[in-house]
Automatic annotation (TrEMBL):
Topological relation to the membrane, as annotated: Multi-pass membrane protein
TM regions (residue ranges): 12-36, 64-84, 91-110, 125-144
Source taxon at top rank: Bacteria
InterPro entries: DoxX (IPR032808), DoxX-like_oxidoreductase (IPR051907)
Identification of the protein by name: Membrane protein
Length: 168
């Protein structure tokens, strides 16, 4: 095994490792299901929530960006629900929420004041903070990441034993 492969395996093992409690599944279920639902709705209701919405708020290339964001929300939402590569899946969703807040909620703040913006932004802020939480702590013990991490722990010990054996 070449050194680059060892480094990439160690990096992946760190990505899936999590000491978060099993209750983290509750955050994963809400964050994953909301993003999955919102991504699907971009395709089901394109005029209101997909391309039409992106055109209305001034997102460049709305015919490209709306489906792209929809696919990101669907795929990352499913990964978070499964607890598979949760930290990696949370990153694009954090960016997604930063763009959503900056393009839709800051204009509300300027035009209608704090309380109107706070009311309209509650789900956006919850999804933003939930995604940050999952990025920091990982997916928890009830996840596919936990199984992948266990596989890495088992197989890394086997590799270390073979490496420490004397060469003929």
């Amino acid at each position: 095994m070449w050194n680059g492969e060892v480094i990439s395996m160690q990096w992946l093992a760190r990505i899936v490792a999590s000491s978060a409690p099993a209750a983290t599944i509750l955050v994963r279920v809400i964050v994953g299901s909301v993003f999955l639902s919102e991504g699907l709705q971009k395709f089901l209701f394109p005029a209101q929530l997909g391309v039409g919405r992106f055109e209305k708020i001034g997102i460049p290339w709305p015919h490209v960006m709306a489906p792209f964001v929809g696919i990101v929300e669907i795929s990352c939402g499913v990964l978070i629900l499964l607890g598979l590569f949760t930290r990696l899946a949370a990153l694009p969703l954090i960016i997604d929420m930063l763009v959503a807040i900056s393009t839709t909620k800051f204009p509300l703040l300027i035009e209608h004041g704090f309380w109107n913006m706070a009311h309209e932004a509650r789900i956006d802020f919850a999804m933003f903070l939930g995604s940050i939480f999952l990025f920091i702590v990982g997916s928890g013990s009830w996840s596919l990441d936990a199984h992948v991490a266990q596989w890495f722990r088992t197989h890394s010990r086997t590799r270390l034993r073979f490496r420490s054996a004397p060469s003929p």
